[in-house]
Amino acid sequence: MVVGVRRLLRMAVTTGVVGAVVLRAIPAWAQEDPLDGTGPSSAGMPGGELVQQVLSWGQWLGLAAGAAVIVYGAATWHGFAGASAGRSVAGKTYVMAGAVGALIIGLLPTITSMLFDAGRS
Q: Long-range pairs for 55-62 at CB < 8 Å and ≥24 separation?
């Protein structure tokens, strides 16, 4: 266990040092943001509406699957509450997995925008 931690720490330090050397070696003019003042836009993109529609369908299908998993998990949780403890625990797991999946699908646009803004700053 200690060897794994040491190896991970060594890799992290090496990565940090190499990253610092590379960033220091880049000229100052190359560090300026070439996309300053711009942002992602689908305006004028051929098929942009189709891509948006396909993404919306995918999001809907993901939410529907999450709801189905929650319903199945709730039925399993309730149906096997007294008879089989293992199935009851599996039902609870399905309910939580469906809820977390729906939460992640709902937060994906916000997470994507947040990570894009963090990468730009």
A: 59/105, 59/108, 62/101, 62/102, 62/105
Beta strands in 30-109 (DSSP E): none
Tell me if the pTM is above 0.90.
Answer: no
**pLDDT at position 90:** 84
Contacts of 48 (CB under 8 A, 6+ apart): 42
Average pLDDT, the chain: 76
Q: What is the pLDDT of residues 1-26, one digit of tens each?
A: 455 666 666 666 676 655 555 555 55
- Mention every residue, 6+ apart, whose C-beta is less than 8 A from residue 78: 91
The two counts, helices (H) then strands (E), for the chain are 3, 0
Residue 95, phi then psi, degrees to nearest 5: -60, -45
How far apart, in whole angstroms, are the C-alpha atoms of residue 12 and residue 58? 37
Q: Amino acid letter at 114?
A: M
Measure the CA angle with vertex 83, ends 80 and 86; round to 5°. Answer: 65
User: Number of C-alpha atoms within 13 angstroms, CB side, residue 60?
Assistant: 6
